[in-house]
Design brief:
Length: 218
Amino acid sequence: MSHPSSVPVESRRDLDESSFTPILRSVLHSVPGVLAVVFVDAEGECIDYCSSLPPFDAKVIAAHMLVVTSEVRETTKRRAGEPWAIHVQGSERDIVVRRVTDEYLLVVVTLSMGIPSLLTETIELAVRKLRVESGEVTPRWEPAIDARVRVEVRVAKGWPYAPSAFWMGTERTKVGDVLGRWIEDDDGARLVCFMVRSESGQELTLVHHVEEDRWERR
């Protein structure tokens, strides 16, 4: 198994950036080991991408995975229902396919590392954002996935509390630095937001829904 160790350097783009680019870029840079993130349509055409691999390679992989997904759908839909995600594990690279709608796929290429919970949550967050940005509704086959995280807090100077670690599934990630804190209003609900950096260098936002006493990751 390969172990990621550095922030990916993006390859020179051959497409202008779109409103989808920041969403795809967040996946590339949020999870160590991600090599390419491609948003592709039902014809195999690349809508947008963010990649440390050559753009042509990333697009070809995504187009091939569309074919694989179509074949899997034909094989399984009568016996196992609609597939919504596919994981291909190889000796050097893994490929995760996540259906966004009937017409769109998100294809993520990584080092051979399985699917850590951080990658799963990051992909699910990107899928939700892609649907909003493209004006698409949640499809009927969408699984019920709990996007919440468990957060450990500590006493903080100047604040009542701050995150010290967070859990996604069985994976615990320690917070190295709290980079900022702010308050948001969500239709009258108070959200306390923390921008944090993990000990491994990942930056993300942890949001505390105060009234419901629950956390989510952005």
